[in-house]
Amino acid sequence: MKRSEKDAHYAAHLPEVLRYHQVMLADGARNRMLSAAIAASVTPETSFLDVGAGTGVWAILAAKLGAKRVVAVESEECLIPVIYKHAVENGVGDRIEIIHARSNDAKIKGKFDVIVAELFGGNALGEESIRALIDVRERFLGPNGMLIPQGISMFAVPARIESPIEELPADVNVQLGFFKELKRNYGQDFPLYVRNRIHFLADPVPLVDVDLRTVMEPPSLKDMTAAWKVRSVREANGIVSFSRSQFTESIHLAAFSSSSWGVTVNEFEPFDVEQGELKFSVTFEDQNSNWTVSVPSHPSIRPQTFSPVFAFTRAKLAHKSAVFKQYRAKSK
């Protein structure tokens, strides 16, 4: 790639990177928990490694807390000058070693007492994320070292969502049943500012729990199940799933209170049942995501099953029967 092409890519990519990290930096719940975990773990005798350093906040914090060695690893090219300028701005520019590389490719001498490795991106329990964390732990964590986070879990809970998808279009008297039918086959992300519309109907239960200190293989995200006894099943119109990050034994963060972590809602048509058992079965795979909601306490009631494949199939079938005109673009 020519220098001009690299510069064009850099310029086009920079705003996206800044927007993403603005969301992370604005997440007060995450920042308070993670900074508390680091402050409790770093002393003047600590060697500290920040993998996926982002804007450099945690490496800078460790240096300001007096860590004897601080290394920041970041794969995003346009964040390298950001880390450096922030380190200088905070008076620790000469105390942080910055490495531009993916964690798997980084070659770093020595072991570390504390490693912060937030490599999750949009998929905290995905195979790539977990394998990267295992690699970091095995190559760089010293004996009795502290890995932050030390665990990650996914929870699910039945909920009543106010003003769900069937309310669309807002303030317009037009029926959109087909849109609703398609959209229910995809999990919907609820940002923090509208999570007050979600009301839990039972206690969250774990779908999968991973101890990052000992895990050797990524967990299976296939055929995970959860069940609850619900006082009023007919109130439930969605299953909420969210992650929880365990920073230390006493410090953890549930995504439901975090503005930068996603909360997924899988909506369904309420079952006409009062008290009973509600069951959620789900597979989260790139090519085979699907979920089923059922009422085992009432076996005569048909379960509801959803999948992106169903949405695609229904849309293609409807496309074939749709009456419309089409005009091809004129060739130049």
Biggest β-sheet, characterized?
7 strands, antiparallel
**Domains, number:** 2
Number of strands: 16
Please count the helical segments: 7
Distance between the termini: 28 Å
Fraction of residues in helix: 25-40%
Structural overview:
- By secondary structure, this protein is α+β, with helices and mostly antiparallel strands.
- It folds into two domains: 3-148, Vaccinia Virus protein VP39 (Rossmann fold, 3-Layer(aba) Sandwich), CATH 3.40.50; 152-319, Distorted Sandwich (Hnrnp arginine n-methyltransferase1), CATH 2.70.160.11.
- The chain is 27% helix and 28% strand.
- It contains seven helices and 16 strands.
- The protein has helices spanning 3-25, 28-39, 57-64, 80-89, 127-140, 177-183, 308-321, and strands at residues 47-51, 69-74, 96-100, 112-117, 141-148, 151-161, 188-189, 198-200, 205-211, 224-230, 238-246, 252-254, 263-267, 276-283, 290-294, 304-306.
- The strands form three sheets. Strands 6, 7, 8, 9, 11, 12 and 13 form a seven-stranded antiparallel sheet that branches. A five-stranded parallel sheet has the order 3-2-1-4-5, sandwiched between helices.
- The radius of gyration is 23 Å and the shape is globular.
- 32% of the residues are buried.
